[in-house]
UniProtKB/TrEMBL annotation:
Catalytic reaction annotation: UDP-N-acetyl-alpha-D-muramoyl-L-alanine + D-glutamate + ATP = UDP-N-acetyl-alpha-D-muramoyl-L-alanyl-D-glutamate + ADP + phosphate + H(+)
InterPro entries registered for this protein in UniProt: Mur-like_cat_sf, Mur_ligase_C, Mur_ligase_C_dom_sf, Mur_ligase_cen, MurD
EC category name: ligase
Localization, UniProt: Cytoplasm
Coiled-coil boundaries: none
Main location per the UniProt record: cytoplasm
Pathways involved: Cell wall biogenesis; peptidoglycan biosynthesis
Family the UniProt entry places it in: Belongs to the MurCDEF family.
Protein name: UDP-N-acetylmuramoylalanine--D-glutamate ligase
Native source organism of the sequence: Pedobacter terrae
UniProt keyword list: ATP-binding, Cell cycle, Cell division, Cell shape, Cell wall biogenesis/degradation, Cytoplasm, Ligase, Nucleotide-binding, Peptidoglycan synthesis
EC code(s) of this entry: 6.3.2.9
Entry-linked Pfam families: Mur_ligase_C (PF02875), Mur_ligase_M (PF08245), MurD-like_N (PF21799)
Length: 462
């Protein structure tokens, strides 16, 4: 067998404690899993079908873990006791199907890491708002003096932190792809923000399959655990009726009062875990503005109250939080035109939230890899707020078809620089240029961060 593209730095990798763990994917989660597996005495091998980034290659070499790139060598993978798979690798990948056929367990990094920590886990999922809510929750807990880590889809690898840190709490942003490979894992506090069509290409284009995946956030929970959910989200309520969570439930709503959870009354936020344990706060004092962010703040607030943090600490943290890069991020004001980077909006619902929060006329930059998007939900907002659409992607036909009757101007572009320049010429003083793609980025960019960074650089060149 050729060992081309296979690297083994030294003999430290020959630890044979408890079997052979193979890790598919050498990104943040894969390298973190390798670090933890090695620390626990497993024989470890890492395989990535793509190119491994230099920083991760260097990390594996430092660990002395053998790895291969740009291939999956079957005889080095199919003999695994257990496989830890990157969330980005679909279950339909040939090597994953072969592992499943022979009965080899395939799990996520989150599932693996949880075995080796007694920390309380606060797990946040949903189609939209996961990163913002996870970061806000982490911000509040850290400010309250809790010994807390941040991991999952955001921050450093959970497994790497379990290997090297001793946190008492973890805030974990959990995607549906991660949940699909989690089986024994249990969240102490589970948060489901919403369920809207996303990644349907991975779920046979059936929303009910995707919703069932999201509801795995409550698997293994008991009556001693906590489940926080949006009472205004119909898809969440439908999925809950099927799954029937066993945990103590705390709903949040902006349209009706709740006895336990969070609700909005006029412009006042009420968060209560018990009738006599209530926090109130004006929504104008929240760092995160916009209707969607009231939901995110409610979810974080309930987590904080469940953990019995002081009201003063929660209020202060919810008022001074800085949102994440690439999520409704103000880039610049040029000639009276606001440029806003919402590159993290990789689905239609995220773009709906972005448009809903706009208070001026918008030149909308959208497009990329369409994941089976239904653009109908955007039509009313596009009619009322969008004066032109600048498509940024290789194939923009479905965007043209969806909005040709609603917007006079739809133009195609193939780079962030071109999109920014054309949007600038189409906008006038008082307008906003909003990059909110509603699509994945992989046709023209490495990822949504790359797309957002290129857009910001292009705006600064105007």
């Amino acid at each position: 067998m050729s060992t081309n593209n296979i690297t083994s730095s030294n003999s430290k990798s020959a630890m044979t404690g408890q079997g052979r763990v193979v890790i598919l994917g050498a990104g943040e989660s894969g390298v973190g899993a390798a670090k933890l597996a090695q620390a626990k005495g497993f024989e470890v091998f890492v395989s990535d079908y793509g190119l491994i980034a230099d920083q991760y290659k260097a990390a594996l070499e430092k660990l002395g873990v053998p790895f291969e790139s740009e291939k999956h060598t079957e005889e080095l993978i199919l003999n695994a006791t257990e496989v830890i798979k990157s969330p980005g690798i679909p279950p339909t990948a040939p090597i994953v199907k072969k592992l499943a056929a022979q009965g080899t367990p395939v799990i996520s990094e989150i599932e693996f890491a949880k075995r080796y920590t007694n920390a309380k886990t606060i797990c946040i999922t949903g189609s939209n708002g996961k990163s913002t809510t996870s970061l806000l929750t982490y911000h509040i807990l850290k400010n309250a003096g809790l010994n807390v880590g941040l991991a999952g889809n955001v921050g450093q690898s959970f497994a790497a932190q379990v290997a090297t840190e001793d946190y008492e709490y973890y805030v974990l942003e959990i995607s549906s792809f991660m949940l699909d490979d989690m089986f024994q894992f249990k969240a102490d506090i589970a948060v489901l923000l919403n369920i809207t069509p996303d990644h349907l290409d991975r779920y046979d284009y059936k929303l009910e399959n995707y919703a069932a995946s999201k509801m795995r956030i409550v698997q293994n929970q008991t009556a001693d655990d906590v489940f926080i959910y949006c009472a205004d989200d119909e898809e969440s309520l439908t999925a809950m009726a099927i799954t029937k969570p066993l945990a103590k439930t705390y709903p949040f709503s902006i349209v009706k009062p709740v006895e336990r959870g969070a609700y909005l009354e006029a412009n006042t936020l009420h968060i209560l875990t018990e009738p006599n344990k209530q926090l109130t706060m004006s929504i104008s004092d929240l760092a995160l503005q916009g209707k969607h962010n009231i939901y995110n703040s409610m979810a974080s607030g309930i987590v904080s109250k469940v953990l019995e943090l002081r009201n003063e600490t929660i209020r202060e943290s919810m008022g001074n939080f800085k949102n994440i890069e690439h999520r409704l991020e103000h880039v610049a004001k040029i000639s009276g035109i606001d440029f806003i980077n919402d590159s993290k909006a990789t689905n239609v619902n995220s773009t709906w939230y972005a448009l809903e929060s706009m208070t001026s006329d918008v030149v909308l930059i959208m497009g990329g890899v369409d994941k089976g998007n239904d653009y109908n939900m955007l039509k009313d907002l596009v009619k009322s707020k969008v004066k032109a659409i600048v498509c940024l992607g290789k194939d923009n036909k479905r965007i043209h078809d969806a909005f040709e009757d609603d917007v006079e101007i739809i133009v195609n572009t193939f780079s962030a620089e071109e999109a920014a320049q054309i949007a600038f010429h189409l906008a006038k003083r008082g307008d906003a240029v909003l990059l909110s793609p509603a699509c994945a980025s992989f046709d023209l960019f490495k990822n949504y961060e790359d797309r957002g960074n290129q857009f910001k650089a292009a705006v600064r060149e105007l």
